[in-house]
DNA sequence: CTCTCGATTAACCAAGTGGTTAATTGACGT
DNA sequence: ACGTCAATTAACCACTTGGTTAATCGAGAG
């Protein structure tokens, strides 16, 4: 409902569609026309047009008109902000990974020392 | 319309709302009850409940029931995948940054040589 | 038992989204 | 001038989303 959407929200929303992400992935390999971009998908040209408008609205692509073709080019800057935002949570997912590694190592050590002990313990959710 | 949404789409969609991002930011400082999470916002309790269900559906939080409170905890793992996906585009935004730096340096050099030239030029979108 | 409190569910609404087909625009080739 | 081709716009549809208010549920307190 917050209609005056902030940039980050618009960026994440644009990225929340697999077709649009595929388009961006394609554009990372080089500029392309709208037709080329739509070719891999089984959806109509207007549907592609709409996706491109969303991407353009998010500043993730820009279009340059060349005769009757529109050349699309990737503009990755907004991803930078999204990446930075996520970066702030890195230690949280690394902590979870640490807990998993710790669990695996403990299990391995237990197996090596005395095989066939009790039930395999599961990492506590909040240790 | 792809209804069987992939994980990345669900993650990005969950992050595409400022209220939900604020909730995650709050949870990064520690677990909290639903009431505590909703307190900063001027929306109803059911609206918060829905946001939390979206976050839970994306695997970004988990809820533990404690008497009549629900304790919410951050689960940052899905952000890891989103972060990785964006990482693939790093060189693109860094290239753009390079172009900007190059422009600034050029401008600076020009200013140093002949001061007080025309209006301050703005970086071209496609130099 | 009853009342309150934290939280969720139910039912509804307005707006947005992702898709369609049909019509339109604009540049090119003949 | 005409037809064609790339792309967009228009109009429509089904479904989702973010919000509301009212009702419900479950655990404690009196």
From TrEMBL, chains A, B:
Gene Ontology molecular functions: DNA binding
InterPro entries: ArsR-like_HTH, HTH_ArsR_DNA-bd_dom, WH-like_DNA-bd_sf, WH_DNA-bd_sf
Biased composition range(s): Basic residues: 115-127
Origin superkingdom: Bacteria
Span list, region Disordered: 108-127
Location of the HTH arsR-type domain: 1-97
Key words of the record: DNA-binding
Name the UniProt record assigns to this protein: DNA-binding transcriptional ArsR family regulator
Native source species: Dyella japonica
């Amino acid at each position: 409902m917050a209609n005056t959407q902030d940039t980050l929200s618009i960026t994440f929303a644009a990225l929340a569609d697999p077709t649009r992400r595929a388009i961006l992935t394609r554009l990372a390999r080089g500029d392309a026309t709208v037709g080329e971009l739509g070719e891999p998908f089984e959806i109509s040209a207007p549907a592609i047009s709409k996706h491109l408008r969303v991407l353009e609205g998010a500043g993730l692509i820009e279009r340059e008109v060349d005769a009757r073709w529109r050349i699309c080019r990737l503009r990755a800057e907004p991803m930078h902000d999204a990446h930075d935002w996520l970066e702030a949570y890195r230690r949280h997912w690394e902590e979870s990974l640490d807990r998993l590694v710790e669990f695996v190592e403990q299990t391995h050590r237990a197996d090596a020392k005395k095989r066939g002990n009790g039930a395999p313990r599961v990492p506590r959710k909040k240790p």
